[in-house]
Every structure is written in structure tokens, then in C-alpha cells.
Write a structure and sequence with these properties.
2 domains, Immunoglobulin-like, binds 2-acetamido-2-deoxy-beta-D-glucopyranose, about 30% helix, nine-stranded mixed beta sheet
């Protein structure tokens, strides 16, 4: 229903005017009287992106962005490191990759989501005869795998900050090429085995589905019904936003539908893969940051690289010489890209307290805003990979102690990509675009956001 209303608005505005006309339907709004608490830079997590050699990427690159979540389990390590289904040596080599990434995460205080389906060997590259847990009703191999895994977690003191994703994207054949019923039984067994071994010291996460928990999603219906009946409710509800569409307010409403249908408790939400590759640019990242912060969900950047490059580049935030022309898994010389600068600003500059925002009704422009103890308010905006002109409205300026009318002097920063190479090109800082005075009244100001490319994000700052 919402989308048909939206479609009508878009048709009307498109036929009446070009993109430059100011129109309420495409205005993102910041409410400066709605304090939503301290920033925890919830979007600063990574799927893979960490080399298997400790300290290969210098520590400052992780700490400057407030890296706080890692998710890995040895995916795509070649023979002899293809995981449990290829034998014990291949398990051990894959485990070594996971353990190394765990150490990097913990060195920076990040939590670690262990992808045990990857350690098993179902990393998406498994062949069509690869076994799955519980094939033909036989759980022996999976039970032995878990016994070995528990022992390795303990002997390597890996329980701190550890979260287990019971299986990745079990709603798609790339990772679970079996019936959902077999998956659900695996879920129940695995959940209780982890709890019996570690209690709640090790958290459990799921279902990490490719699909959003929308009320129309029958796979989610079966999952929610099962975990309610089996009393195997994870500590984090996780799903992915990797289709290039959707938004988190509607996805959260969908989750709420299933929670109330099956009387399930609220738990933290973790979007443990977000953004498609084309969205991994400053505009897209700013958009995702705003979406995640609004619903208080943790988010981990998706990863669109393969092979050892999957275990490098911090999920496309850093680069190095010959990154694509002559890739070496162990080469160093790292530098930052344009997208990195958004996460650095988000972590280092957007401090103080957050305030509530709403995205434009076409869901293209979104905003994340903070009010700093340095007496500067900051609004980071991003358009979801489209050119045009949107509006940004800043409301309740009087809540910041500003007069209800006057001139608001706004300092603008641009966050570009390197035009020669979007993901691998070096960018060392945002661009100072200067100051502009906007006349305002009624405690509110509205000004345009000119999105003349599909990649640049903007930050607007003003003194209070
Ligand atoms: C802005 O936030 C305040 C405080 O939460 C709230 O009372 C007010 O209704 C909000 N304004 C709008 C337009 O939603
Ligand atoms: C398919 O993968 C399994 C391990 O999952 C392996 O034992 C088997 O040899 C592979 N088959 C082929 C044809 O490569
Ligand atoms: C949950 O499911 C697992 C796997 O089928 C089963 O072993 C366990 O007994 C079930 N627990 C409850 C409480 O239903
Ligand atoms: C962000 O904060 C740091 C540390 O205070 C400061 O050096 C830097 O100039 C700020 N960046 C911007 C874009 O304001
Ligand atoms: C304040 O902002 C949060 C986050 O965007 C939102 O959920 C809440 O409804 C807002 N409150 C008011 C009163 O507008």
C-alpha cells in the first residue's frame, strides 16, 4: 500500500516538474528535539575483509573507523583449507583463518560472529554432492564437527565476544541446498548443543537469511514458528539487506509481525550483511548508516570480493598498490578509499548524542544527525545511488538553543570517491565545500541537496 501511494506521488512530481523543484515528498527531516541517545557507530562492522596474517592491515585503519563487529569463518580458503567436509586437515587450516580473524577483531574490541557453515565447507563453492548436516537422517558428521569445534573454541580461549551464526542464508540454495525442515532440525540441535556447552557466554544468532522478515515471507513464517515451538530463540535476530532494494523501517515492521504472531521476545537486530557493491560508496554508506541507526540495529558491511581478496581490504574500505592489476594476498602498503572517510567521520566526528530523523518519502535521501559536546550539530546525508535534487529539513532548532529565526551558517563537507577508481582509488580526506548562510524562521530550515553524481555523501555542520 505504501509503495502504491509512493508511486503515485513520484508520477505526479515527475510530470509536473524536474528534479530541482522543492517538494515535500522528497524531503528528509531531522528533529533536533528528539534525542535518541549516545552514538555507538552501529554500522561499523565488517563481513570478512581481514587478512589471515595478523596486523597485515595496520591497526589504525580499524581503530579510526571504530570497527566493532567482525563476521568470518574461513570461507574460500583453497585446498587444503576447504573445511570439515574435506577432512580434518582441511578443517584445521580453515579454522586457523577464523582464529586469526578472531584475534584481529578482539585486538580492536570488536565482537566476532563465527560463520560455522563456512568452517564446515558450505561456503557457496561446495560441489553439488557436498554433504549437509542431517542428510538421510544421519547427524553423526555434524555432531562430530560440533564436538571438535567446541574443543577448539575452548582450547583457543575464543569465547570472549563470540557470537555463533548457526547457518548463513539458509533460505537460498547457494548455502543450504536442502529442505527447510532439515535446516530447522539442524537449528534446534545446534542451538541446544551450544547452550549445553557454553550457556549464554557464547551468543547465538540467526537466521541470517537472504530474505527480509516481511509478513509475506513464508520461509520466515516457518522459522519463527519453529523457534517459538522449539524454544530456541537466538540472542540476535539477523538477516541480510543485499538485494539492492528494501528499507529497514519496513523490514523491522516485518520482524515485529512475526514476533507478535508467535509471541517471540524482542532481541537486538543485526543486519550482518548490508549494502550491495555499488552501494559501497560514500552516498550509499551514509544512507545505510542512517537506516541502521534509526532502528538501533548493528550492521556489518557486505563483502563482494572473492578468494583471498575476500579476506582483505576491510570489505572495500582500504586498498593497496596493484590491488586489482597484480593482486597479492600478503602485500601491504595500505591506503584509504573515499568510502572509508565516511566511516571515519561517522566514528570520530559524529559524537555527543543522536537525534531522530526520517528519510525522504521516496526513500532515496536519508540522514543521520548528532549534536556534539563541541557545540556543533552534524548531519550526514546520502542518496541511495541516484542523481537529482532532494531537500533536507532541520526542525526544532530552538531545542539546540538557537533563536527561532535568523541565518543558519552551514559548513558543508563532500565525501567523494576517487573518480579514477571508485573502490580501490585513494582518498585521504573529505573535501571542504565551505560555508553558506541559510535564512530561516519558525525554528526550521530547509535547503537542497544537489546530488550531481551517484557516489558523493555530504555532511552539514553548524555551531549551536
Ligand atoms: C520531535 O521530537 C520531539 C521529542 O521527541 C517530539 O515531541 C515531536 O513530536 C517531534 N516532532 C515531530 C514533527 O515528529
Ligand atoms: C565434492 O565435494 C566433496 C566434499 O564436499 C568431496 O568429497 C568430493 O570428492 C567432491 N566431488 C567432486 C567430483 O569434486
Ligand atoms: C528442539 O529441536 C531439537 C532438534 O529437533 C530437539 O532435539 C529438541 O529436543 C527440541 N527442543 C524442544 C524444547 O522442543
Ligand atoms: C573530525 O575530528 C577530528 C578529531 O577531532 C578532526 O581532526 C577532524 O578535522 C574532523 N574532521 C572534520 C571533517 O571535521
Ligand atoms: C525519535 O526518533 C526515533 C528514531 O528515528 C523514532 O523512532 C521516534 O519515533 C522519534 N520520536 C518522535 C517523538 O518523533
Amino acid at each position: 500500500m505504501r509503495s502504491s501511494v509512493l508511486a503515485q506521488c513520484l508520477m505526479v512530481t515527475t510530470s509536473l516538474a524536474g528534479r530541482v523543484l522543492k517538494r515535500d515528498s522528497v524531503t528528509a527531516v531531522v528533529n533536533f528535539s528528539n534525542n535518541t541517545g549516545a552514538p555507538q557507530h552501529l554500522a561499523s562492522g565488517l563481513l570478512y575483509g581481514v587478512p589471515d596474517t595478523l596486523d597485515q592491515i595496520p591497526s589504525k585503519f580499524y581503530s579510526e573507523i571504530g570497527y566493532n563487529y567482525e563476521r568470518a569463518g574461513g570461507a574460500q580458503i583453497p585446498a587444503p583449507g576447504r573445511g570439515w567436509i574435506w577432512g580434518l586437515t582441511e578443517y584445521e587450516n580453515r579454522f586457523a583463518s577464523a582464529l586469526s580473524n578472531y584475534k584481529t577483531a578482539r585486538e580492536h574490541g570488536a565482537n566476532f560472529i563465527f560463520l560455522i557453515h563456512d568452517l564446515w565447507g558450505a561456503d557457496g563453492s561446495q560441489n553439488s554432492s557436498a554433504p549437509y548436516p542431517g542428510d538421510n537422517g544421519d547427524w553423526t558428521s555434524w555432531d562430530n564437527y560440533l564436538t571438535r569445534l567446541f574443543s577448539d573454541i575452548k582450547s583457543n580461549s575464543m569465547t570472549g565476544g563470540l557470537i555463533i551464526d548457526i547457518w548463513n542464508e539458509p533460505d537460498g540454495s547457494a548455502f543450504w541446498n536442502r529442505e527447510q525442515s532439515q535446516y530447522l532440525e539442524m537449528w534446534g540441535r545446534t542451538y541446544y548443543k551450544f547452550r549445553a556447552e557454553f550457556g549464554t557466554e557464547v551468543l547465538l544468532s540467526g537466521p541470517a537469511s537472504a530474505g527480509e522478515p516481511l509478513a509475506t515471507n513464508t520461509w520466515w513464517k516457518a522459522w519463527a514458528s519453529y523457534v517459538a515451538g522449539n524454544d530456541s530463540i537466538p540472542d540476535q535476530y539477523a538477516w541480510h539487506m543485499e538485494g539492492g532494494g528494501g528499507d529497514l523501517l519496513s523490514a523491522q515492521a516485518g520482524l515485529q509481525h512475526w514476533l507478535s504472531t508467535y509471541d517471540l521476545p524482542s532481541k537486538p537486530i543485526n543486519i550482518n550483511e548490508y549494502a550491495i557493491f555499488s552501494e559501497q560508496v560514500p552516498a550509499g554508506s551514509a544512507w545505510w548508516i542512517a537506516q541502521l541507526e534509526r532502528i538501533n540495529a548493528h550492521g556489518l558491511r557486505g563483502n563482494w570480493l572473492s578468494g583471498y581478496a575476500l579476506h582483505d581490504f576491510m570489505a572495500s574500505l582500504v586498498s593497496k598498490p596493484d590491488a586489482t592489476s597484480d593482486y597479492s594476498a600478503t602485500a601491504t602498503g595500505y591506503f584509504t578509499n573515499g568510502d572509508y572517510q565516511v566511516y571515519k567521520y561517522y566514528y570520530q566526528n559524529m559524537t555527543g548524542y543522536r537525534v531522530g530523523t526520517t528519510p525522504s518519502t521516496d526513500l532515496k535521501l536519508d540522514a543521520y544527525a548528532t549534536v556534539g559536546t563541541d557545540r556543533y550539530a552534524r548531519v550526514l546525508v546520502g542518496v541511495r545511488i541516484e542523481e537529482g535534487t532532494w531537500e533536507l529539513q532541520l526542525n526544532d532548532l530552538t531545542a539546540l538553543g538557537l533563536p527561532s529565526s535568523g541565518t543558519l551558517n552551514v559548513h558543508t563537507w563532500g565525501f567523494p570517491v576517487n573518480s579514477a577508481d571508485t573502490h580501490y582509488g585513494e582518498v585521504d580526506a573529505p573535501k571542504d565545500l565551505g560555508w553558506y548562510g541559510h535564512a530561516y524562521s519558525g525554528g526550521t530550515v530547509t535547503f537542497p541537496v544537489y546530488q550531481v553524481d551517484t557516489t558523493t555523501a555530504y555532511a552539514f555542520e553548524f555551531a549551536i
